[in-house]
Design brief:
By secondary structure, this protein is an alpha/beta fold. It folds into four domains: 145 residues, Rossmann fold, CATH 3.40.50; 152 residues, D-Maltodextrin-Binding Protein, domain 2; 125 residues; 34 residues. It is 41% helix and 15% strand.
Length: 646
């Protein structure tokens, strides 16, 4: 016979009263109660009264007490409605041979002989409640012990002690004027109520003195609700208790009736300052590339234009420059020993569209239709080729920048290579401008926020800004981090701060998120509820979840009613009751929060762009005026210096 894949063990105990008492005291001290061990105690005297003071629920004992007439009186231990152990009489039994013949000194086959005597007697032990001694051929030990499932089908109105802490939305407690805690509402409140109705028991609430969920501590003690069950101060504990290996070493758990994961609760990301929102559409790398492109496209066009001028001059020189040296000397002109340079021959083509106003060779009195005139540094100043080249280069660069912001330019070109470069540059500028304008509109109309903490890796990076992980003291999350030997969870444990990382309750933990730099680690449902109570818009729940956990009922080690609890919990889950209770409690709290706010939800309304959105534009305009004024002052100073030198 097996129960939860464990073999049932039958222990036959034939000892003196003192040794028997010592054995069961050790069973009690070491919490060795188990539903898989059945004890058959054979005594020469009535030892029931002394033994029932030692036994606890979970230790199954059938006692055979020797009578003077050679028969044995059989009784079975059971738990009463008053939570005390007593022995229930089963009847008398006459063995086929006397136990007196089985002397301890004759141990050739004592256990085998005794087992044979017990299993093959002529007198059958009747079922519970019957005391007849009808002659039957065989007796089986398991007939002495009733099935636990049938035994705990009905608790007969027994009153259990349940350890609970007030924890919304799982178990909300109310405290009366005399200090007594009574249940109010919650998911686990619904679970324990359903169990009580189904199995016919009542309960009273007992809170742990430290107010913690608890578990084994480093000094050997067991804290919190789990500790109360381990010390037999309570029959069970139910209140969002996570099943883990550390707790299973001191208590037994039912099957998990609700599963969820852990999330990170941090302060809602603050809005970014919109002063420099005009720079946000592009990253720093894109801005650097655009600046570089705007700086080099002008020189590129200038170089291509110069190459085209040289090609044109080379093509026309063979037609217009076969002049003899003699004619050159007669005209007092320099000899034409070499090809004319760009500076001396290509000035009319070179300066077209480059910021110069030149007299047309065909019409000396008519100005060429080109760009606006550029003021001369000094009146009647002699201009040199290097100055001309620099002004042409600056003119091209400035007009390329105008194209980038879609302001057009005043360049009129007839050379095909230059036109090709300009066409592709204009298309590039159009794409950049459209991308910038659309993205800028989104940045100005939709608030931009700081990067949130969405994962454990983000939490480790946030530690550089002073943030620390936070977990409720005495919970499974604390034990999980504390027990980590390496990896990310070990890193998070090293980042904890004893002064702020271990709030005594979930309520305090959520409040510390707003007042201190901590990122609170808590179960997803609990986090949703508590942040809603404080104002959901003030918090941010990470998208990444971790540490999946199941909640179970913590029971005493060896508690015989666990299998019955499991049976009822399975039926609740299959019927969808637990999920329904979860939704009901969440909806109830949400309605309560809306009532406290007067039933008015937050409404999002469209707003026009304010001065705050456009501060960057005005800032850039101001910077431009300041730079322009500084440039004017520098030019005035330079002109005065030149005049002074002249």
């Amino acid at each position: 016979m097996t129960l939860y894949s464990q073999e049932i063990r039958n222990v036959i105990l034939i000892c003196s009263p003192d040794n028997t008492r010592e054995i069961f005291e050790k069973v009690r001290k070491k919490s060795l109660e188990s539903s898989t061990i059945r004890w058959l105690v054979i005594m020469d005297e009535d030892f029931r009264h002394s033994l029932q003071q030692i036994l606890r629920e979970g230790t199954q004992v059938a006692m055979a007490t020797h009578n003077p007439n050679g028969t044995y009186f059989l009784s079975l231990s059971e738990i009463g409605t008053n939570d005390l152990i007593s022995f229930k009489p089963l009847g008398e039994w006459t063995p086929p041979v006397s136990f007196d013949s089985l002397q301890p000194r004759n141990i050739s086959t004592p256990i085998g002989s005794l087992k044979n005597v017990i299993l093959t007697t002529h007198n059958q032990i009747p079922t519970a409640g019957s005391v007849n001694v009808t002659q039957q051929p065989h007796l089986r030990i398991h007939r002495l012990f009733p099935s636990y499932k049938s035994l705990y089908d009905d608790f007969r109105g027994r009153r259990l002690v349940v350890s609970v802490v007030s924890n919304i939305p799982f178990f909300k407690l109310l405290h009366l004027d005399n200090g007594t805690a009574v249940p109010d509402y919650g998911i686990d409140f619904q679970v324990i109520e359903a169990l009580g109705r189904r199995l016919n028991f009542t309960y009273r609430i007992l809170e742990p003195s430290d107010g913690r969920w608890g578990g084994p501590e480093g000094d050997g003690t067991v804290s919190g609700m789990v500790g109360m069950v381990a010390r037999h101060s309570a029959h069970l504990a139910i209140d969002e208790i996570t099943i883990n290996e550390e707790r299973k070493s001191v208590v037994d758990f039912t099957r998990a009736y609700y599963l969820e994961a852990t999330t990170l609760v941090s302060r809602a990301p603050a809005k970014k300052d919109s002063t420099f929102a005009v720079f946000q559409p592009f990253t720093q790398l894109v801005w650097l590339i655009l600046i570089a492109m705007a700086g080099i496209i002008g020189p590129i066009v200038y170089v291509i234009k110069s190459c085209c001028d040289v090609i044109h001059l080379a093509a026309t020189s063979s037609k217009t420059w076969p002049i003899s040296k003699k004619e050159s000397r007669d005209k007092d002109e320099p000899p034409n020993d070499k090809m004319p340079t760009v500076d001396t021959l290509s000035k009319p083509r070179q300066t077209r569209g480059t910021g110069k106003v030149l007299e047309s060779p065909q019409h000396p009195n008519k100005k060429q239709n080109s760009l606006q005139t550029v003021a001369e540094p000094l009146q009647n100043e002699t201009r040199n080729p290097s100055t001309e080249c620099r002004e042409v280069l600056l003119s091209y660069s400035f007009n390329m920048l105008r194209s980038l912001v879609l302001q057009g330019n005043q360049i009129v070109e007839h050379d095909t290579p230059v036109r090709i470069v300009l066409v592709f540059w204009y298309v590039f500028c159009l794409v950049i401008y459209a991308s910038y304008a659309g993205t800028l509109t989104a940045f100005l109309t939709i608030p931009s926020y700081e990067r949130p903490i969405d994962s454990l890796e983000d939490l480790t990076r946030a530690a550089k800004d002073g943030y620390a992980p936070g977990v409720q003291a005495g919970t499974s999350n604390e034990y999980f981090l504390k027990s980590a030997k390496s990896g990310l969870f070990k890193t998070l444990w090293d980042l904890t701060d004893p002064k702020r990382s271990f709030p005594p309750s979930g309520k305090v933990g959520i409040e510390r998120v707003l007042t201190q730099k901590i990122v609170y680690m808590s179960a997803n449902l609990n986090s949703e509820i508590r942040t809603s109570q404080k104002g959901r818009h003030r918090f941010y729940l990470a998208r990444q979840t971790f540490f999946p956990q199941g909640y179970g009922i913590a029971c005493r080690i060896g508690a015989p009613y666990i299998s019955k609890f499991d049976e009822v919990l399975i039926s609740m889950q299959q019927a969808g009751l637990v999920n329904k209770w979860v939704k009901d409690e969440v909806l109830k709290i949400q309605r309560s929060n809306q009532g406290q706010r007067g039933g008015k939800g937050q409404q999002k309304v469209s707003q026009a762009l304010s001065l705050n959105h456009l501060k960057a534009a005005f800032f850039l305009l101001l910077v431009g005026h300041i730079i322009s004024a500084a440039t004017v002052l520098c030019e005035i100073r330079t002109r005065r210096k030149k005049i002074y030198l002249h």
